[in-house]
Structure formats: C-alpha cells, structure tokens
Amino acid sequence: MNERTRRSLGLGLVTAAIGVLLVAGLGSALSSAGAASPNTARGGSGADGHALPTPIQHVFLIMMENEQTGIIYDNETYETELANTYGWGGDGNNPDGVGYYAVCHPSAPNYLALTSGLPLQCGSDNFNTYSVNNLGNLLDTAGDSWVAWEESASVPCQEYNSANGLYVVRHNPFPYYSDLGGDTPGSACETHVLPIANLTADYPYSQTPPDFTYIAPNVLDDGHSSSALTGDNWLSTFVPKLIAQPWFSSSVIFITYDEAYLPNGDENFTGYGGLEGGPVYTVAISPYTLGVGALTYNASHYDELSTFEWLLGLPGTGTGNDSTVAFPAMVPLFNDELFSPGLDLRYTDLIGADLSARPLEGDQLQYANLAHTDLAYADLRGADLAYADLAGADLKDADLQGADLAYANLTGADLQGATLQGAQLSYADLAGALLTGLGPFLGEETDFNHADLFGAQLLGAICGSPNDLSAVGADVLAENVPAACTPPL
After folding, report:
1. What SS3 string covers the chain?
2. How far apart are CA 54 and CA 329, in angstroms?
3. How far is CA 76 from CA 72, 230, 236, in A?
4. What is the pTM of this model?
5. Cα 349 to Cα 25: distance, rounded to the nearest angstrom
6. Residue 211 dihedral angles phi and psi, to the nearest 5°
7. Mean pLDDT (the chain, rounded)
8. From 75-79, 95-99, 360-364, the region with the lowest mean pLDDT
9. For residue 269, with 0-12 CB atoms within 10 Å meaning exposed, 13-18 middle and 19 or more buried, which class applies?
10. How does pLDDT run across 156-197, given as a tens digit for each residue?
11. Is 172 in contact with 163 (CB distance < 8 Å)?
12. How far apart (Å, rounded) are the C-alpha atoms in residues 222 and 205?
C-alpha cells in the first residue's frame, strides 16, 4: 500500500479522514456500513455460516450462583479440576488479590452487566426493562445464531418467576432488554430465549450449537437454593457431556458465578476499580485454554463480555464498560494455538488487551482497534495493519518486519526496540510516538531500515538522546519530523 499514486491524496485529507473515524468511534463507523461490517470481514465459519475471527466457533456461558471463589476452588472437586486443567480467573485469595470479580449485588445486576456492560439496578433484583444495547442485540445485528436455555421455565422469554420457584427471571437477562421485544410472539427474545425442562436430560448434545449459547440452570442446579456441592455435582454431570461432543474442538465453555457471598451468608463487597460484587469463580474450558492456568491480573464480568465480543467478532455495546481499556478481553486465558499465522482479524476490537509475545505473523488486522493494546515482543512480521488504530499501543521490541502500517494510527505508541525493516508506514500517524531505543544495549534500537515513511506524521515524536534509531535505505520523506530525530530520519 505504498504506491505514489495513492499518496497524491495528500496528508491533510488522510489525517482528516482518520480524525473522523476516531471521533465517531471505529465500531460505530463500521457497523453503519454494510460492506465494511465486522460480520462480513471475519475469518472462519460459524454455525450459521457467518465468519468468526478465531478457530473458536461456539461460545457458551453457564451461570452459577452466590459463592465466592474460595468456597469453590480447592473445595469443590469438579470445578477445582476444571480450574487446574484449563484457563481460569484466579483464586481471589492470593496475597496480591488477583482474581475475577462480580460487579455488585444482588443477582440481577450481574447478569445485566455480563450482557450489557452496564451496572444496571445495583441493589435490586426487580424485573425492569432497559433500552440499552446488549449482547442479544449485537448478535442479532450481526446475523449470528444464538440461544438462551432456561431450565424449568415454562414459556419462551418468561418474564415472571415460575410457581414452583425453580425458574427466576432475575437469572435471565434477555427479557430485561426492550429492544429484544419481550415475550411478544415472534420477538427476538421469544425466538431465542427458550425453556428447557431438564438441562442434563433434554439438552441437544448431538446438534452443532449456535455461535453463542447461554445456559441458566434452575435454582437448585445452579447452587442458589441448594449448596455449592449440589452445583458442583450438577456441573460434573452436564459439562462432560458437552466436552465429549465433536464440536467441542472448536468451542469454549465459560462457567461463571454471578456474585460472592461470605461463608456466614453475608454479601462479599471486595472488589477493584469501583466493583463491589466480590471475587467469583470463572473458568474457560476449551482445547485452546488447556493448561493455561490463572489470570495474572484482575478481571470482571465486563472483561468477560469483552471476551465474548472478541470471540464472536462483535463490536462493543458502545454504551458500557465492555471493550474498553479498563475492561479488555481476557486474551491470556487462551493459548498461542488460537493465534495462528495468517489469521483474519480485520475490524477486530481488542482495545487494551494483552497480546504480548503472541505469534501474529501475517495476520490480517486492517482497521482493527488495538489502541493501548500490549503487543510488546509480538511477532507481527508481514502483518497487515493498514488503517489499524494502535494509539498508545505497547510495541516495544515487536517484530514488524515487512508489516503494512499504511495510514495506521500510532499516536503515542511505544516503538522502543521495535524492528520495522521494510515496513510500510506511508501516511501513518506517529505523532507523539516513543521511538528512541531502549538501551543500555546498543543492539536495542528501533529499526526503520528500508521502511517506507513517506508522508508519515511525526509531530512530537520522541527520539530521545542518544538517538538509537536506524533507518538505512528507508524512504523518510516524513512530515513534521522533530529535530531530535535527525539524523537519521
């Protein structure tokens, strides 16, 4: 993408166009244009024929109830085995407090947070309706297939508790969203949110699941009105049947508790970043999470929604905490097999995510939102990052040899020690980027050898002193190059 005919457009017009995208928001700009929607740009094929951005084609969420992590991990046999086998959210009892946290209390607001990214009705389990963007609407807008199974419910999209108390609407977030149409015949909620008498006996195991499956056990099976042991026993009968299916090879099954209670029955208000729902157990079960271990940073229901959106190739809700720098997708739960060379991640939103040292060689990341993403030491050789948003990204020591960064937004990015030999950076915005070498080792320089920097914007770029840059054979007709960057730029 370095042909001189394209450059005749002029840097001013390009900068203005990029500014419009940044102000409007990349997700909203793409969703308003059918030809450039995330749904048409993803790689792989989901259950409904739509492309998904990773080899994972089926995402499950099983919701459990009212236990803090320490009650489950190291106490309940099956869930402890799952945590020790796959990737999970940390035990919440480490000295540094690292763990996975609920948003607030009681139940309903956590279910809503997991599907909207918003702290709706904290302090209340009442049934209300909200006109806010949500996971169901995102799935419908993208044309993705999804289903919510509600054990012991009587009718689709049931908006009231069952007479026997086994089904409660507060464990079913989808009727709360007015844009899904409630229980009106033919509505999105009525079509997708279905009753099932007995999950273990009646679940259609042999059928290939949709892109997203939500599973709400009844109040006995989820441990709410029984015990942690009962919930663990139920999971040990249900989950192995899912794992045994052929389609599990391209699936991930999340098991997540809604909120944390102390052993004495009081609500646990431990949290971080304004969250007060307490540490809760969550685990991601997949061939792609096998042997990963626990997260090494705090995460929450918001991060899990961000993870769903990433895996399903969806934009963030745009109204909540999901897909934000503060609550990124939980990428470290997944092993490197998920990041094969040549992966199609166009338009993917992984803002603020940890992709450090990942093998992203030759990946298609055009228009991806990677702002403030950790890409230190990542292998991005030959990757196509044209028009990608990499503002504030950590690219220290990243290998970007031959990568296409034309028109990419690299404002404030850290490129210390990065290798950009032969990279295409024409008209890229490097304003305020940190370009100086790391030191103290002479070899740790930012390498622009043979890179194309024609028309690149370097206003305010930091080259530092000493200037550990190399640009042998580079095309460096860049714009607004600070004096500290010359020579060699």
Report:
1. CCCHHHHCCCHHHHHHHHHHHHHHCHHHHHHCCHHHCHHHHCCCCCCCCCCCCCCCCEEEEEEECCCCHHHHCCCCHHHHHHHHHCEECCCCCCCCCCCEECCCCCHHHHHHHHHHCCCCCCCCCCCCCECCCCHHHHHHHHCCCEEEEEECCCCCCCCCCCCCCCCCHHHCCHHHEHHHCCCCCCCHHHHHEEEECCHHHHCCCCCCCCCEEEEECCCCCCCCCCCHHHHHHHHHHHHHHHHCCHHHHHEEEEEEECCCECCCCCECCCCCCCCCCCECCEEEECCCCCCCEECCCCEEHHHHHHHHHHHCCCCCCCCCCCCCCCCCCCHHHCCHHHCCCCCECCCCECCCCECCCCECCCCECCCCECCCCECCCCECCCCECCCCECCCCECCCCECCCCECCCCECCCCECCCCECCCCECCCCECCCCECCCCCCCCCCCEECCCCECCCCECCCCECCCCCCEECCCCECCCECCCHHHCCCC
2. 14
3. 5, 10, 10
4. 0.86
5. 11
6. -60, -45
7. 85
8. 95-99
9. middle
10. 999 999 999 999 999 999 999 999 999 999 999 999 999 999
11. no
12. 19
> pLDDT for 95-108, tens place per residue?
567 799 999 999 99
The amino acid occupying position 161 is: N
- Neighbouring CB atoms inside 10 A of 449's CB total 18
Query: What are the beta bridge partners of residue 205?
Result: none
Tokens 């009442």, located at residue: 126
Residue-wise pLDDT for 403-432, tens only, equals: 999 999 999 999 888 888 888 888 888 888
Looking at 14-18, 126-130, 232-236, which range is the least confident one? 14-18
293-294 vs 87-88, strand pairing mode: parallel
Q: What is the radius of gyration, based on Cα positions, of the chain?
A: 24
Domains in the chain: ranges and CATH: 1-42+344-489 (no CATH), 58-305 (3.40.720.10)
